[in-house]
Amino acid sequence: MKKKQDTLIVTAGRDPEANFGIVNPPVYHASTVLYPTLEAVKTRAQPVTYGRRGTPTTFALQDAIAELEGGYRSLLTPSGLAAVTTALLAHLKSGDHLLMTDSVYEPSRQFCDKVLTRYGIDVEYYDPRIGAGIAALIRPETKVIFTEAPGSVTFEVQDIPAIAAAAHGADALLMMDNTWASPLYFKPFEHGVDVSIQAVTKYLCGHSDVMMGAITTTEAAWNETLATHGALGVCTGPDDIYLVLRGIRTLSVRLERHMETGLKLARWLAARPEVTRVIHPALPDHPDHAIWKRDFTGASGLFSIELIPCSEAALAAFLDGLELFGMGYSWGGFESLIIPQYPAKIRTATKWNGTGQILRLHAGLEDADDLIADLEAGFERFHTA
Fold first, then answer.
1. First vs last Cα of the chain: how many Å apart?
2. 91-116: string of b/e by CB count within 10 Å (b at 16+)?
3. For residue range 144-181, what is the model confidence (pLDDT) as tens digits?
């Protein structure tokens, strides 16, 4: 039977009959794997060949992610950034041209600028809101167009179907960082994506205790991705995989709460005099709200605000005394976070026009009214300073 999404979240990657009826896949700690015959060694015709290449624990999570995203197959990496870098290396070579969104996660930008360019790959950044206009930037040597929707920190929602049509018309691959929405709220392969990347560290894990990434591809993009993943020697530990398999089963109920709390905070912040704008794709006044509403089925708990111009002392008074919002990078766990961001420093294809401090918030699983009270007390300190 065709399963609905909430059922898939609970059942994907599980095979109790293969494990003595045990509901959860066993955690295999393995490096060496023995072969029964010389012929088996030569052909490697058994499913598990070496620990780095994966065990049944690995395969269970990879199968679950591929099924949730709607792709052909998935691979795991030690971090979200490792998923980005592995995917790019798999499909680019010297002389190729990469179109990279200007709103991309900053470490991905650093990899492009400091590694890919050293190996003769031409990296060109483009306006994330370019949509179908990206066709004008595509050259004969353009092999990959990289998208991230919404963009890190500034939350531009890219027109993925329009960019996919332009990419495929020029025989280029479309990659997407799908971490913000997760497979729950955006189905990349239904919108033309060839390679979908996630920081599993975030919502799939959900508990701030694992570093992991995932690459999911179409069948056509699979072989090059698999070969490069193997050649780079990237692999993930079985205990971390177990934690993600455990966390993924509650993805639906957790993400619904993150969305609900995030929207409540965003609407409350939009009415505050200290906030000049709230940057949340699910709010009707967001410039890309129509695209978000068309392509996404929900929102996560991550968004940004811009404060009125203020002194460093006022900003510190606001942030330093917060009790429930921790100042830390990453997001997607059960705890609420807030961190200053500086998008103007990294943009190259577009200009960031904000005049106030950008703060990125992650709405955790705490009571929303308690989170509002924490922010309200922070604004009182802000004015006092």
1. 61
2. bbeeebbbbbbbbbbeebbebbeeeb
3. 999 999 998 999 999 999 999 999 999 999 999 999 99
Sign of CA dihedral 177, 179, 185, 189: positive
Go through the domains of the chain in sequence order and give each one's CATH number: 5-248 (3.40.640.10), 251-384 (3.90.1150.10)
Contact 332, 206 (CB under 8 A): yes
CB 229 within 8 A of CB 253: no
- CB contact at 8 A, 103 and 154: yes
pTM, entire model: 0.94
Q: What is the pLDDT of residues 240-295, one digit of tens each?
A: 999 999 999 999 999 999 999 999 999 999 999 999 999 999 999 999 999 999 99
Place of tokens 């993943």: 229
Distance CA 327, CA 325 (A): 7
Of 70, 83, 50, which Cα lies nearest the Cα of 3?
70
The H or E element that residue 240 is part of is helix 238-248
Number of H helices, E strands in the chain: 13, 11
Q: Are strands 97-101 and 122-126 parallel, antiparallel or unpaired?
A: parallel
Question: Which residues does the annotation mark as catalytic?
Answer: 52, 105, 177, 202
Whole-number Å distance between alpha carbons of 71 and 186: 12
Closest by CA to 12, choosing from 245, 337, 241, 307, is 245
Size (the chain), residues: 385
The one-letter amino acid at 15: D
